[in-house]
Automatic annotation (TrEMBL):
<keyword id="KW-0496">Mitochondrion</keyword>
<keyword id="KW-0812">Transmembrane</keyword>
<keyword id="KW-0677">Repeat</keyword>
<feature type="repeat" description="Solcar">
    <location>
        <begin position="14"/>
        <end position="94"/>
    </location>
</feature>
<keyword id="KW-1133">Transmembrane helix</keyword>
<dbReference type="InterPro" id="IPR023395">
    <property type="entry name" value="MCP_dom_sf"/>
</dbReference>
<protein>
    <recommendedName>
        <fullName>Mitochondrial 2-oxodicarboxylate carrier</fullName>
    </recommendedName>
</protein>
<keyword id="KW-0999">Mitochondrion inner membrane</keyword>
<comment type="similarity">
    <text>Belongs to the mitochondrial carrier (TC 2.A.29) family.</text>
</comment>
<keyword id="KW-0472">Membrane</keyword>
<dbReference type="InterPro" id="IPR051752">
    <property type="entry name" value="Mito_2-oxodicarb_carrier"/>
</dbReference>
<comment type="function">
    <text>Transports dicarboxylates across the inner membranes of mitochondria by a counter-exchange mechanism. Can transport 2-oxoadipate (2-oxohexanedioate), 2-oxoglutarate, adipate (hexanedioate), glutarate, and to a lesser extent, pimelate (heptanedioate), 2-oxopimelate (2-oxoheptanedioate), 2-aminoadipate (2-aminohexanedioate), oxaloacetate, and citrate.</text>
</comment>
<keyword id="KW-0813">Transport</keyword>
<dbReference type="InterPro" id="IPR018108">
    <property type="entry name" value="MCP_transmembrane"/>
</dbReference>
<dbReference type="Pfam" id="PF00153">
    <property type="entry name" value="Mito_carr"/>
</dbReference>
Amino acid sequence: MASSKKYDKPSILKHAAMQIISGGSAGFVEICMMHPLDVIKTRFQIQRGADDPSRYTSIFDAFKKMFRNEGPLSFYKGILPPILAETPKRAVKV
């Protein structure tokens, strides 16, 4: 026979802690996934004219050139400020 133990609801404090951790984790993961696209968008915005030798012709060209010339970590340059802003914001957002 199955246990007749009643399911205990977590305390308010435990529930709040779980919500904060879940929200903070979601914000962290979102930044880690979207930051490379934001870096590429910014690089497109600051490109000089058509005569620029380092000009990107497409998003795939930007990925390829950044990976080849600067390495895989180049997609995460400047990620610390967005993480420090977004993680707590998402943690406390209702």
